[in-house]
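Help needed: design a sequence for this.
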């Protein structure tokens, strides 16, 4: 836990993580395939267990200890497993069937969680737990994806006023914004590969509940873009 951090910041972020979980399960439950809808509860349970494991690791200061280890512990125990899961889904037939059965409209609405994430990141900067470059006042323009997501979903899939190419372009741009902040956050975190922000490093993501950002929210958002792009290119 981070000392002297107002409760509302941690609470807001915790609720954002919960919203991400519920929106993802909502996406699964809105599939037009019954076999996909049946996966909603098992996936909800699995992700809840994953969030619990990550919470325990952070509370026990696992990610805060031995900063000189390589790869950083949060990458080894939090980020890599999530990325490997995404790779497995795209690499297997059943995984691809699951991906292709997810509704694009719901996958697009999912990105709205990036709005409260960016607000929390700005608050964390004010309390000197992340660098300015990770906020919308620095190098992070990811809030653009969050603000535009509901409009893309509504005008693209409900009103059909945005074509497939326009939605695909939005996904590629928003994916680029996500990759940009991930790279900047990674190289701002205390570790052997830190390159930026030595005066005010990114220590927030090593602490609960903010470690849920790289280990849960970012992988879900990444998966949302990759799944959408796959469907749109087919």
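Sure. Designed sequence:
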């Amino acid at each position: 836990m981070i000392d002297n951090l107002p409760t509302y910041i941690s609470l807001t972020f915790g609720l954002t993580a919960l919203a991400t979980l519920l929106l993802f399960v909502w996406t699964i439950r809105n599939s037009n395939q019954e076999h996909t809808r049946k996966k909603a509860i098992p996936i909800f349970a699995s992700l809840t267990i994953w969030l619990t494991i990550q919470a325990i690791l952070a509370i026990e200061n696992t990610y805060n200890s031995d900063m000189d280890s390589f790869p950083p512990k949060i990458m080894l125990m939090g980020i890599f497993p999530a990325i490997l899961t995404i790779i497995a889904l795209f690499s297997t037939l059943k995984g691809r069937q699951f991906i292709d059965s997810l509704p694009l409209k719901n996958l697009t609405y999912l990105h709205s969680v990036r709005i409260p994430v960016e607000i929390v990141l700005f608050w964390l900067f004010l309390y000197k737990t992340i660098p300015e470059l990770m906020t919308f006042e620095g190098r992070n323009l990811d809030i653009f994806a969050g603000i535009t997501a509901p409009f893309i979903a509504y005008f693209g899939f409900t009103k059909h006023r945005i074509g497939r190419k326009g939605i695909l372009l939005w996904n590629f741009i928003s994916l680029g914004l996500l990759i940009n902040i991930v790279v900047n956050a990674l190289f701002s975190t205390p570790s052997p590969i830190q390159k930026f922000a030595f005066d005010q490093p990114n220590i927030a993501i090593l602490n609960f509940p903010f470690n849920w950002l790289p280990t849960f929210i970012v992988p879900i958002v990444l998966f949302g873009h990759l799944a959408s792009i796959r469907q749109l290119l087919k």
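Residues 42 and 196 are 40 Å apart (CA to CA).
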